[in-house]
């Protein structure tokens, strides 16, 4: 499909904005940034409106042979569409969150953010292996600068940790990509998704990709960069980090690891489950004892991402769809929670939970929104968090009831730490005078909270809107995974037709060996 | 007729020699007053010689038609690629040097002449088809380089650099010469084709292996590959900065070009014998370059370790022993020359209120607030040297590691690229000092147009726009590499 290069335009708008704001003063810079991100949001809405659900798998494709060794090649399927939509939806809100709080070097700040937007859309839209890698890695530079220049007290340590951890993960992936391009003779992602790599090679390739995506995701035990980076990043930086950057890891699994190395994915599924189970329980317990609001939400992000990974490695439609929904929901909810923290941080300049208390009395509307997002984070039915977690856990239950059992404790622990946080910050007595004197939300903050609240409720009440675009792609992925899928311990249906299922499984395994 | 053809092929060398001798007379006649004029004339000569090399490169010249003086000298596409980079590096040195040397009252007429004769030697190095022609080129370059390193006669550090370079350089030349004599003794030839034929593909005799090892050791010194890298930080730090710019660009191209030609043409029938040496030197250079740089607080020393580190990456291309590997190495080399030029021009532009050079990394604190343009350029160089996309420095690593994987050296590629993360640490340190720390406000110097233009041009090349050149760069590097393999 050719025609109007809307994806290239979506990459170009923030890039042009980034160059324009670099030299501008603070007032102009934030205005230009807001306009650029809003234009991209409108383009994103057009993209969704024009996306033909049930049509071709890859739409809006464009290509240009500009470079040696790789191509400028873009195109999206339903999965990429949803993540691009999430990105362009969150970006204007991030600019809004920075509106008053960024005072030093505003031009460079907004330039870094707009550059981030270009690169994130590029990651989701890239259809060439190396174009993907360049976009994926390039995000390190603006994020390093955002944390390092505008972050809090320990910003330098956090920025180094973020940069070196993620770089180390990614370089091994690059070597694996060279091997794949060499073996398959193409760098085209859709072709590679159908290519059957030899099973013994898949093991190594899977591990190399895992090194990168597990750090980005982040999975326990390589998650330790995340709390540092989150706590030290400015509010908008945290929103983007939690909202979109973490999704790159999940996107990587769903776009590369699963379809390209199905046998290796099945082989390593127990590893992923084990790490995810550990993550859910350990990081939830860590979150329970935090004194810093942002750190608490950062650890809760790790726990949520662990539910994403078990859903992805459940090898069935429910699990995969659930994972995608958690990613979208977590993008909105964690983003909104960081915004909520930003609102009170802007007023009191501390993230210590003990410095707040009784905010429901002087900030009733704030308390209302905070409650909604807290509930969504817990996964209360009717909010976006419920749908994804339910599907994901249901998916993994078919594979292993033990994994489902352990991971479901995450929901209980999640309720514990979130409600405990909410009680300490919003309820109780107003023990601090300065906290008690804080004014409620102003117009700008309303404008940021309301769209997020609407989408969170929408996704909770009518998830079909978000499920429809990706259903076909998830089904295609499930079909691709089916031959390699490990046998579940609790799927009664399969047991009833056991001989047939086993026969086809053995046949497929035999085919796999023949490569 | 044959002589005429040979003279035609060596036109660039003749032009440099003759104009060098004429300018030497001019210098003798009118003294240091003419230094500027001689500089300008030398730049013109170098640019003209670079232009002379273009047809051979674009036309993928290779084979006996390009051999002069009985195959002692080869004017093929490979030498043309090297020469363009060499003359470019030398010309940039001459453009940035006068402003620097003037401040020390050291802008003497000999400076451009020495650079010119060094360039002549380097041109011979990359074109040599015979071990003796190789040695003549190498020594012509080295002798000029020793003097250049010690050019600030009143400066202790410069004199020390010159002396160290001379002593260690002579030792390396001796080792190389010993290797050459052994090779000659055991193969009976000094021309590359003859050596290749004599060594054959069978088992190498111990004597010939010794010869190979000594030749490679001598050359490893010249490219400052570990474990023969020790001189590099001291010489880079002590030499006047324009001379350091020169050392980091032109001689590096020449010595690496030489190494490639000797490995592929002379010892091409015995790849197993030198591959393991090259792999060892590559990995050691990457690791030592990365670890050594971490503790440095002088930016010129940092760049020295960075050059050791980068040579390691380039050697991975050679270790492949394939045409793709050599081509990748040439692409890396071209990008590395531009990165070095950008880095050192930016360093030259760092001067304090009294117009003295600022070399300490700590003095760069908060440069992004006081001199944002310079800070952006230096940050681009650092990220580029670290090989972080989307900067163009990434492309050099990309092609080299791709070639390594294609040559089935996956383990080497994986170890090399993992070690590059160590290197990223110290490049980040420079960016951190410039962007995250409070302003020290040390850098005040005003800069002339030439520096600014050079820095802007090099920065644009290193920006993502550089990727638009990849098709073209690969075509040229491919031409050059194929000339080496189809000699």
UniProtKB/TrEMBL annotation, chain A:
TM annotation in the entry: 6-24, 31-49, 79-97, 109-126, 132-150, 162-181, 201-219, 231-254, 266-289, 296-316, 322-345, 365-387, 399-422, 443-462
Pfam families linked: Oxidored_q5_N, Proton_antipo_M
Keywords: Membrane, NAD, Oxidoreductase, Translocase, Transmembrane, Transmembrane helix
EC assignment: 1.6.5.9
Source organism superkingdom: Bacteria
Compartments, record wording: Endomembrane system; Membrane
GO MF terms, alphabetically ordered: NADH dehydrogenase (quinone) (non-electrogenic) activity
Topological category with respect to the lipid bilayer: Multi-pass membrane protein
Ranges of residues in domain NADH:quinone oxidoreductase/Mrp antiporter transmembrane: 126-411
InterPro entries named among the record's database cross-references: NADH4_N, NADH_Q_OxRdtase_chainM/4, NADH_UbQ_OxRdtase, ND/Mrp_TM
Residue span(s) of domain NADH:ubiquinone oxidoreductase chain 4 N-terminal: 69-120
Family: Belongs to the complex I subunit 4 family.
NCBIfam families per the UniProt record, alphabetical: NDH_I_M (TIGR01972), PRK05846.1-3 (NF004499)
Protein name, entry field: NADH-quinone oxidoreductase subunit M
Originating organism: Novosphingobium cyanobacteriorum
From TrEMBL, chain B:
EC supergroup of this enzyme: translocase
Source organism superkingdom: Bacteria
An MF annotation (GO) of this entry: NADH dehydrogenase (quinone) (non-electrogenic) activity
Residues that span the membrane, as ranges: 6-30, 37-60, 80-101, 113-138, 165-186, 198-221, 273-295, 302-324, 330-350, 374-395, 407-428, 449-469
Keyword Cell membrane: yes
Places the protein is found: Cell membrane; Endomembrane system; Membrane
Entry keyword set: Cell membrane, Membrane, NAD, Oxidoreductase, Quinone, Translocase, Transmembrane, Transmembrane helix, Transport, Ubiquinone
Classification via Pfam families: Proton_antipo_M
Catalyzed reactions: a quinone + NADH + 5 H(+)(in) = a quinol + NAD(+) + 4 H(+)(out)
UniProt-listed PANTHER family: NADH DEHYDROGENASE
Function, as annotated: NDH-1 shuttles electrons from NADH, via FMN and iron-sulfur (Fe-S) centers, to quinones in the respiratory chain. The immediate electron acceptor for the enzyme in this species is believed to be ubiquinone. Couples the redox reaction to proton translocation (for every two electrons transferred, four hydrogen ions are translocated across the cytoplasmic membrane), and thus conserves the redox energy in a proton gradient.
Family: Belongs to the complex I subunit 2 family.
Protein name: NADH-quinone oxidoreductase subunit N
């Amino acid at each position: 499909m050719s025609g109007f290069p809307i994806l290239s335009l979506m990459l170009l708008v923030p890039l042009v904005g980034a160059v324009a704001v670099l030299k501008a003063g603070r007032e102009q810079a934030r205005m230009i940034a807001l306009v650029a991100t809003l234009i991209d949001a409108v383009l994103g809405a057009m993209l969704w409106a024009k996306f033909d659900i049930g049509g071709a798998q890859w739409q809006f494709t464009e290509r240009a042979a500009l470079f040696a060794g790789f191509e400028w090649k873009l195109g999206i399927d339903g999965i990429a569409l949803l993540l691009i939509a999430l990105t362009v939806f969150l970006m204007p809100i991030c600019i809004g969150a920075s509106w008053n709080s960024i005072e030093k070097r505003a031009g460079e700040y907004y330039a870094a953010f707009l550059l981030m937007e270009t690169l994130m859309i590029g990651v989701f839209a890239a259809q060439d292996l190396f174009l993907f890698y360049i976009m994926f890695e390039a995000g390190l530079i603006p994020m390093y600068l955002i944390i390092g220049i505008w972050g809090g007290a320990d910003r330098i340590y956090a920025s180094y940790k973020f940069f070196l951890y993620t770089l180390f993960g990614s370089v091994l992936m690059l070597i694996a990509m060279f091997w794949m391009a060499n073996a398959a003779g193409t760098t085209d992602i859709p072709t590679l998704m159908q290519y059957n790599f030899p099973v013994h090679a898949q093991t190594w390739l899977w591990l190399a990709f895992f090194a990168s995506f597990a750090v980005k995701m982040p999975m326990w035990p390589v998650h330790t960069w995340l709390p540092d980076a989150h706590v030290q990043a400015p509010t908008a930086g945290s929103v983007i980090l939690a909202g979109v950057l973490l999704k790159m890891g999940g996107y990587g699994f769903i776009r590369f690891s699963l379809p390209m190395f199905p046998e290796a994915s099945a082989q390593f599924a127990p590893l992923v489950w084990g790490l995810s189970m550990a993550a859910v329980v350990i990081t939830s317990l860590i979150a329970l004892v935090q004194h810093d609001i942002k750190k608490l939400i950062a650890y809760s992000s790790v726990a949520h991402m662990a539910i994403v990974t078990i859903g992805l490695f459940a090898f069935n439609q429910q699990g995969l769809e659930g994972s995608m929904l958690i990613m979208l929901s977590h993008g909105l909810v964690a983003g909104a929670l960081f915004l909520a923290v930003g609102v009170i941080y802007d007023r009191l300049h501390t993230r210590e939970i003990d410095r707040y208390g009784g905010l429901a009395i002087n900030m009733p509307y704030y308390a209302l929104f905070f409650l909604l997002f807290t509930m969504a984070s817990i996964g209360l039915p009717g909010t976006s968090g419920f749908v994804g977690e339910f599907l994901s856990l249901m998916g993994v239950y078919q594979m292993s009831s033990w994994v489902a059992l352990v991971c479901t404790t995450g929901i209980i622990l999640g309720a514990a730490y979130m409600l405990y946080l909410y009680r300490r910050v919003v309820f109780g007595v107003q023990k601090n005078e300065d906290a008690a004197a804080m004014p409620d939300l102003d117009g700008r903050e309303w404008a940021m909270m309301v769209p997020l609240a609407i989408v969170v409720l929408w996704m909770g009440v009518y998830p079909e809107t978000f499920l429809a675009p990706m259903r076909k792609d998830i089904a295609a992925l499930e079909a691709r995974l089916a031959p390699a899928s490990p046998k579940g311990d609790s799927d009664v249906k399969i047991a009833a037709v056991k001989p047939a299922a086993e026969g086809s499984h053995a046949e497929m395994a035999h085919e796999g060996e023949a490569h | 007729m044959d002589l005429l053809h040979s003279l035609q092929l060596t036109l660039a060398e003749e032009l440099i020699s003759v104009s060098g001798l004429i300018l030497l007379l001019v210098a003798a006649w009118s003294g240091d007053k003419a230094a500027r004029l001689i500089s300008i004339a030398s730049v013109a000569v170098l640019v003209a010689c670079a232009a002379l090399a273009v047809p051979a490169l674009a036309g993928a010249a290779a084979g006996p038609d390009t051999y002069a003086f009985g195959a002692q000298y080869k004017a093929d596409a490979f030498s043309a690629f090297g020469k363009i980079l060499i003359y470019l590096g030398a010309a940039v040195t001459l453009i940035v040097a006068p402003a620097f040397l003037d401040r020390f009252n050291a802008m003497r007429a000999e400076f451009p002449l020495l650079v010119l004769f060094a360039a002549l030697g380097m041109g011979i190095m990359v074109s040599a088809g015979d071990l003796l022609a190789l040695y003549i080129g190498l020594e012509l370059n080295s002798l000029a380089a020793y003097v250049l390193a010690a050019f600030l006669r009143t400066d202790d550090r410069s004199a020390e650099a010159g002396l160290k370079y001379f002593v260690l350089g002579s030792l390396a030349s001796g080792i190389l010469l010993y290797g050459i004599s052994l090779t000659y003794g055991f193969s009976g030839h000094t021309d590359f084709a003859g050596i290749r034929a004599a060594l054959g593909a069978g088992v190498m005799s111990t004597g010939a292996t010794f010869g190979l090892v000594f030749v490679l050791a001598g050359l490893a010194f010249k490219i400052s590959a570990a474990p023969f890298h020790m001189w590099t930080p001291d010489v880079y730090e002590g030499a006047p900065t324009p001379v350091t710019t020169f050392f980091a660009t032109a001689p590096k191209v020449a010595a690496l070009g030489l190494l490639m030609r000797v490995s592929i043409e002379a010892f091409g029938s015995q790849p197993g014998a030198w591959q393991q040496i090259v792999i060892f030197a590559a990995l050691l250079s990457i690791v030592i370059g990365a670890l050594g740089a971490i503790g440095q607080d002088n930016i010129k020393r940092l760049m020295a370790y960075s050059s050791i580190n980068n040579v390691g990456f380039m050697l991975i291309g050679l270790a492949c022993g394939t045409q793709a590997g050599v081509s990748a190495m040439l692409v890396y080399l071209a990008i590395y020359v531009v990165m070095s030029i950008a880095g050192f021009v930016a360093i030259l532009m760092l001067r304090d209120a009294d117009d003295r050079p600022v070399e300490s990394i700590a003095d760069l604190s908060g440069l992004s607030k006081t001199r944002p343009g310079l800070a952006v350029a230096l940050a681009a160089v650092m990220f580029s040297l670290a090989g972080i996309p989307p900067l163009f420095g990434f492309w050099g690593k990309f092609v080299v590691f791709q070639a390594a994987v294609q040559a089935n050296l996956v383990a080497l590629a994986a170890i090399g690229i993992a070690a590059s993360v160590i290197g990223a640490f110290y490049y980040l340190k420079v960016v951190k000092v410039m962007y995250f720390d409070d302003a020290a406000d040390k850098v005040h110097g005003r800069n002339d147009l030439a520096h600014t233009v050079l820095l802007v041009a090099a920065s644009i090349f290193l920006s993502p726009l550089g990727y638009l050149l990849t098709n073209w760069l690969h075509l040229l590097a491919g031409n050059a590499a194929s000339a080496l393999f189809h000699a």
